[in-house]
Amino acid sequence: MFFRDKQKRDLLGKWLIGVVAVCILFYLAMGNLDILGRSVLWVVNLLLPLVLGAFFALVFNVPMGFIERHLFPHAKRERVKRLRRPLAILLSILLVFGIFIGVAFLVIPQLAGAIKLLSSQVLETIDHLSQLETEAFWASIPFGDTISRIDIDWVAMQSKLETWALTTGSNLMDGAINAAGSFAGTTVDAFIGLVFAIYILANKETLKRQGSRLIHAWLPQRAGGGLLHVATVCSRIFRSFVAGQVTEAFILGFLCFIGMLLLGLPYAAMIGALVGVSALIPIVGAFIGMFVGIFMILTVSPLKALIFAIFLLVLQQVEGNLIYPKVVGSKMNLPGLWVLAAITIGGELAGPIGMLLGVPAFSALYTLLKEATANREAALAAKEDDASEETT
Fold first, then answer.
1. Cα–Cα–Cα angle for 253, 256, 260, rounded to 5 degrees
2. pLDDT(90) > 90
3. Dist. CA 268–CA 262, nearest whole Å
4. Could you list the residue ranges that cross the membrane (predicted)?
5. pTM reported for the whole predicted model
6. 3-class SS at 32?
7. 187 versus 231: which is more confidently predicted?
């Protein structure tokens, strides 16, 4: 009976053709992984400015919406109303970049001073080692005669330390040059993305209306409605994520600053600001600030650097397991367990960017799956009710 039905035969034929095509494409992809990888990388590099622009637009849209609602709220003149959007975009960009530039001006000078101090300490250590072969040096310290009899090649130790210092300096210089080149390329992409984001924000209602028309014109009604619903859910969740992430980063940076003041640790304001900004990367972002903080405090006191490391590890555990799931998870209706799972899986798949975007992606999937499950349960319940009515 199945093969006598022409419609079912056509459906089976299309399904078999699709399966065969997918198998052939999979076989070709597995046999040309290097070409596939280069092609994917080329496409990613080509679309990177546009992707950055869309990301910037999503980030700037959060403060822009707030500013636009509160900027000239009682204005009557049409000319003043038209100024809201451009001024809101400008103020949003200045606010976001102003925070990062302010932290950079706070961190970079002190970090450069710490590097200079550490290098001078290394040179002093080398000079001290060069004196260890002189009898006058051993005579000037307690138990010098006893220590001088120990068979230690101080000259060789000095030579190794000098070699290590030169190698480390050369590696740092090479890394700085490579980072500068990469930064220059990224800056160009970021600038193009920023221009693209400004166009998106300035015309977001028009773009939304055009996208809706395209979807309704080219997709079936059910599929188009579902796609628009998914886009609405993702947009709402991302706005909540940005607000929650900024709140959590501020809390962590403030707690770090207060804790360092209470413990009498140096660079409290600078390290607190750095920890807060780096905490925009969920859960593990504060470790970036921790490593920089340890390096800087190490130039003042190794003991204080150890105290800072222990303090920030404890604070990081409290933040990761209590503060972050409560603050961000509550804003996104995502349980704390799934927040941690999203960060772990996102980090494994795409590194820091995956950690940053994993939480809103998981939250969107969680919300959509929750809605689909509720609809499915309602449909099954209605079906059972109809069946029970038929039996009665």
1. 145
2. yes
3. 10
4. 12-30, 42-66, 87-108, 179-202, 249-269, 275-298, 336-369
5. 0.65
6. coil
7. 231
Residue 122: per-residue pLDDT: 60
Smallest CA-to-CA distance from 279 within 343, 370, 375, 361 is with 343
CA distances from 146 to 134, 136, 138, 142, 143 (A): 14, 14, 9, 9, 5
Q: Which tens digits make up the pLDDT trace of 177-230?
A: 565 555 566 677 778 888 999 999 999 889 889 988 888 888 888 888 888 888
Please name the residue that has the structure tokens 């940076």. Answer: 253
50 vs 46: CA distance, rounded Å: 8
Structure letter (DSSP) for residue 1? -
List CB contacts of 344: < 8 A, sequence separation 6 or more.
Answer: none
pLDDT digits (tens, 9 = 90+) for 14-52: 778 878 888 887 777 777 767 776 776 777 677 778 877
Q: DSSP character for 143?
A: T
Cα separation, 355 vs 285, in Å, equals 9
- What pLDDT score was predicted for residue 147? 47
Instruction: Write out pLDDT tens, residues 276-294.
Output: 888 776 656 667 788 888 8
Give the DSSP per-residue string, 191-207. HHHHHHHHHHHHTHHHH
Tokens read off for 126: 């080398």
Q: Which residue, among 41, 58, 23, has the nearest Cα to 234 in the 3D structure?
A: 58
Q: 100-128 as b/e, with b when 16 or more CB fall inside 10 Å? A: eeebeebbeebbeebeeeeeeebeeeeee
Tell me how crowded residue 93 is: count the other CB atoms within 10 A of its CB: 19
Is residue 247 classed exposed, middle or buried when 0-12, 13-18 and 19+ CB atoms within 10 A define those classes?
Answer: middle
Q: Yes or no: say if 304 and 268 are a contact pair by the CB < 8 Å rule.
A: no
C-alpha 366/C-alpha 359 separation (Å) is 10
- C-alpha dist (Å) from residue 239 to 54, 60, 170, 184, 224: 13, 10, 44, 30, 23
